[in-house]
Amino acid sequence: MTGIRVALVDDQALFRAGIRMLVESQPDLVFAGEAGDGVAARELAGRSRPDVVLMDVRMPRSDGIQATRDILADADAGGYEPPRIVVLTTFDLDENAASAIRAGASGFVLKDADPEFLLAAIRTVHQGNAVIAATATRKLFAHVGHGGGRREVTAGWSDLTQREREIFRLAARGLSNAEIASSEYLSEATVKTHISRVLAKLGLRDRVQLVVFSYEHAIPPEG
Questions:
Q1: CA-CA distance, 191 to 185, in Å (whole number)?
Q2: pLDDT tens-digit map of 22-45
């Protein structure tokens, strides 16, 4: 079994060394390389094709926001699977972290998080799920949507069935598949199928992007 390939981007060498040791201590993770700025991160991602990138925001030459855009654009242009990008930030309501998520990152983790949480985040985001607790998700994306009017929903919204819209609203509140299954008296496998269809119809990458969509668009309250 090939492990989850993890790349690290941060301008502090000591921090990189600690994270590298943590990743290499796990039998199911493979350290895929490190970079000290966004320009080097783009080259690293193109060369090593990591599954997950841990991305600092504030760095020289090119910051984590631009690096996120570049890495995802390169994957799209190259026709290969893009990595999941997890933003590393010092503050839980960092506007830069919010901007990185708008740019396509799949979540964020505080730099002072417990090692076990970071490891769980890597595994969780690799599966396409959010890496942020429900309350933190709501706080962050309320911050994302602050200061701007909400856009009308895209044509994809009309393609959703009534059940898919119900599942969308629950997922946008930060509920897990298990919590949605319990609430709606469905199996987790059925919920997972609904979520996959919702993401495909709305053109979204993962559940974090689903939450962004919810906060940035005027979702009808019912129906």
A1: 10
A2: 999 999 999 999 999 999 999 999
CA-CA distances (angstroms) from residue 32 to 9, 10, 35, 48, 209? 11, 14, 10, 6, 25
133/146 Cα distance (integer angstroms): 20
Supply the pTM of this predicted model: 0.71
Burial class (CB in 10 A: 0-12, 13-18, 19+), 155: exposed
Is pLDDT of 160 > 60? yes
State how far the Cα of 86 lies from the Cα of 108, in Å rounded to an integer.
5
The amino acid that residue 15 corresponds to is: F
Q: Domain extents for the chain? A: 4-131, 133-223
The Cα 189–Cα 178 span in angstroms is 9
CA distance 198 to 164: 6
Reported CATH class of domain 133-223: alpha beta
Q: Do domains 4-131 and 133-223 have the same CATH topology?
A: yes
Fold category of 4-131 in CATH: Rossmann fold (3.40.50)
The per-residue pLDDT for range 84-142, each reduced to its tens digit, is 999 888 765 556 666 777 788 888 888 888 899 899 889 988 887 766 644 455 555 55
Q: Which residues is 33 bridged to in the sheet?
A: 7
